[in-house]
Amino acid sequence: MPTPKDVYIAVIGAGGVGKCFLSQLEFLSKRLAANSSSPRLSLVLISRSKKILYSPQYAPLPFDNISTKLADSTQQPLPLTKTIEFLAAAPSKVILVDNTSSQDIADQYPNVLSRGISIVTPNKKAFSGSYQLWQDIFAAAASSGAGVYHESSVGAGLPVISTLKDLVDTGDSVTRIEGVFSGTMSFLFNSFAPTEGSGGKWSAEVAKAKELGYTEPDPRDDLNGLDVARKLTILARLVGLQVESPTSFPVQSLIPKELESVASGDEFLQRLPEFDAQMEETKISAEKEGKVVRFVGSIDVEKNVVKVGLEKFDRSHAIASLKGSDNIISFYTKRYGANPLIVQGAGAGGEVTAMGVTGDLLRVLQRIS
Ligand SMILES: NC(=O)c1ccc[n+]([C@@H]2O[C@H](COP(=O)([O-])OP(=O)(O)OC[C@H]3O[C@@H](n4cnc5c(N)ncnc54)[C@H](OP(=O)(O)O)[C@@H]3O)[C@@H](O)[C@H]2O)c1
Questions:
Q1: What mean pLDDT comes out for the span 33-46?
Q2: Domain span at residue 148?
Q3: Does residue 121 share a domain with residue 64?
Q4: What is the CATH number of the domain that holds 64?
Q5: What is the pLDDT of residue 4?
Q6: What are the b/e assignments for 352-365, b being 16+ CB within 10 Å?
Q7: In this structure, are 201 and 338 located in the same domain?
Q8: How confident is the model at residue 198 (pLDDT cuts 50, 70, 90)?
Q9: At which positions is NADPH bound (predicted)?
Q10: Is 290 known to sit in a ligand binding site?
Q11: Is the entire prediction scored with pTM above 0.90?
């Protein structure tokens, strides 16, 4: 029999982030179990694209070797709508953890939330898609009382969204947000245009980043700027701007026009050296001003201007001196004056991203239990 303290957890997606999340969930549920007044967490469902593991009677699934058991599961996968039905019928509160990047799942959030199921997720799609979806999500959460948290959708585990919400909710006036929001772009520009030395050729740096696993399988998925635009869309909306979509403001793509339609990522990389002169020119023009070039996103709240693209920074600027693949996000506000509140550190990686998701789970627990 469930007790009022039981909270059921359903996890969709067990990839890089999902696997780390599961081990953090195991730690958390053990920690909470040690205190009789804490909620009791039960993992009742876990799924991947074509695999599912769940207990029809909502009995907790043991954590040991859970990813292997999921891979070996012979249970018939449930369509998403059936999964939602199953969770909505649970005799206790439910939190759905979406560790995928699926738009189909994101589109179901209003439905999930209106059934009283809370959501935590690093998936950007729901919050950076149409403005209508954004409104539907928060309207559904408000009317059912379910929670929806997505800290890791911007800057992975870095406290970006919670910081911005605190600034807004406590009455500070955020005037500008600016930063490097992509680990890939950070790595590329820190090596292409370092503050010390001259850096390599653009195409060579892109090839190196791919080799080291810093880019998507097709680097054009990083270089088109859309991922950064999605993150900016989320932050702009949180600060009150009605941004229609991530393509409704200027986003500079670093894919040469001629290579937009080449068939594969490999062909793209092969031909990229033909276009090195363009990026070299940008680098040299910044150097002539004693600056370096960086790929940044910014939101000018007062002017209602959101943009993503290349900008020049003094070598001493915090954005210029970023290291490795770190992210940096600066909040300029009335309270903080001329020196912005800066959040900086790893903006990608399974463990840190999962930490943001687990932190959100704790926030939901505080709310619902
Ligand atoms: N990795 C990072 O550093 C990072 C940082 C910030 C945010 N994020 C976000 O975190 C999320 C997960 O990233 P990841 O790196 O873990 O991705 P990943 O390794 O590709 O894993 C995605 C998981 O989702 C499953 N999946 C995809 N579509 C599904 C569907 N329709 N139904 C059920 N399961 C589905 C996949 O299952 P199969 O393997 O069976 O296809 C896989 O288990 C993404 O939204 C990403 O943008 C990641």
A1: 95
A2: 6-157+351-368
A3: yes
A4: 3.40.50.720
A5: 63
A6: bbbbbbbbbbebbb
A7: yes
A8: confident
A9: 100, 124
A10: no
A11: yes
What backbone phi and psi angles, to 5 degrees, belong to 11?
-115, 120
Instruction: Let me know whether 61 and 37 are in one domain.
Output: yes
Same-domain pairing of 122 and 265: no
CA 99 to ligand 1 center in whole angstroms = 5
The 10 Å CB-count burial string (b at 16+, else e) for 133-149 is bbebbbebbeebebbbb
Cβ(49) – ligand 1 distance below 6 Å: yes
Helix/strand/coil for 234: helix
Task: Read off the pLDDT of residues 98-116 as tens digits, 9 standing for 90 and up.
Answer: 999 999 999 999 999 999 9
**Residue whose tokens read 């950064």:** 228
Specify the DSSP element, H or E, that contains 255: none
CA 100 to ligand 1 center in whole angstroms:
3
Note the pLDDT of residue 5.
Answer: 86
Same domain, 101 and 71: yes
Strand partners, 118: 95
Cβ–ligand 1 distance for 13 under 6 Å, the answer yes
Whether 24 and 105 map to the same domain: the answer is: yes
191 and 61 within one domain: no
Q: Indicate if the pLDDT at residue 59 is higher than 70.
A: yes
Q: Is the pLDDT of residue 180 over 90?
A: yes
Same domain, 228 and 121: no
Model pLDDT for residues 283-319, shown as the tens digit of each residue: 999 999 999 999 999 999 999 999 999 999 999 999 9
Positions marked catalytic: 231
Residue 145, marked binder = no
Mean pLDDT of the chain: 96
324 annotated binding-site participant: no
Q: Which atom of ligand 1 is nearest to the CA of 125?
A: 45
